[in-house]
Amino acid sequence: MAEDRPENPPELLVRLEHAAARFAAAADALTDRQARETSGLPGWTRGHVITHVARSADVYRWLLRLATTGVEPGPRADGTALARALREGAGRDATELAADLRRSLDGMLEAAAAVPADRWATLVSALAGWRHPAWFTLQRARRELETHHVDLAVGYGSADWPEAYVAWALDATLPALAARGFPLARVSAVDLGRTWRLASDGPSASGSGHALLAWLAGRADGTGLVEEHLLPSPPPWPQPPVPGWD
Fold first, then answer.
1. Which range, of 2-16, 48-62, 98-112, 145-159, averages the lowest pLDDT?
2. Ramachandran bin of 129, using left for φ above 0, alpha for ψ from -120 to 50, beta for the remaining angles
3. What average pLDDT does the chain have?
């Protein structure tokens, strides 16, 4: 979408702030019992989801500070450390979970606000190894918050995703899938008036943008989508960006 141009990080930051505020408010409202109840993710409680988002925000803050200074801001947590933090943190009471989340989100947003304009194009590396410009960290964090807000299973569903987020996420996800050979020829988001043509032949799907995105993100089974042929199963979420960023 034009409003999400990479050269306009301040607008992306505003949208990230809104997503963070919504997620934090949902976490604040949980009781201890609710925090320990099952989330929308198999095997995870709501405490797992909140802890995961908090530690992910720490990772994004680290990347943003690296982009700002060009120097690693201390050791970087690897996959093993993040998994341990998730195990150890998921069972905390609701107040501690919410406070930890807000500290991490605030730290991430403060780091984003401090990035100089000429540093947004700096390449940083995801834990999986692929590199992307620093401004894309804002989109990664936004996607994390919106998707995991649905996973909290507190009444926020894919239909509550902002339209601009859905449009951006489809624009980002569908070309990435096509570049990796995902067998889907055409996708139409009827409410957005958008169609993506991905291949010359194969299955096609149409429906609301949020329903399509929920299916592609593994948060829905595709029920309600209009399909020409049997729809393929999307690969694990999240998908890396289109090849071109290492």
1. 2-16
2. left
3. 92
Predicted local confidence at residue 237, as pLDDT: 76
Residue 238 · residue 217 · CB < 8 Å? yes
Phi/psi of residue 211, each to 5°? -70, -40
Give the pLDDT confidence score for residue 240 in this predicted structure.
Answer: 66
Q: Kindly write down the DSSP assignment for every residue of 49-76, as one continuous string.
A: HHHHHHHHHHHHHHHHHHHHHSS--SPP
Tokens of 127: 């834990």
pLDDT tops 50 at residue 4: no
| Tokens 């930890």 -> residue | 100
Give this prediction's pTM: 0.93
Helices (H), the chain: 9-28, 32-35, 46-69, 79-89, 94-113, 135-151, 163-179, 209-216
Query: Tokens standing for 4?
Result: 């999400």
Say which residues have a Cβ less than 8 Å from residue 43's Cβ, sequence separation at least 6: none
The Cα–Cα gap between 52 and 40 comes to: 14
DSSP for residue 38: B
Find out whether 170 and 176 touch, Cβ atoms under 8 Å: no
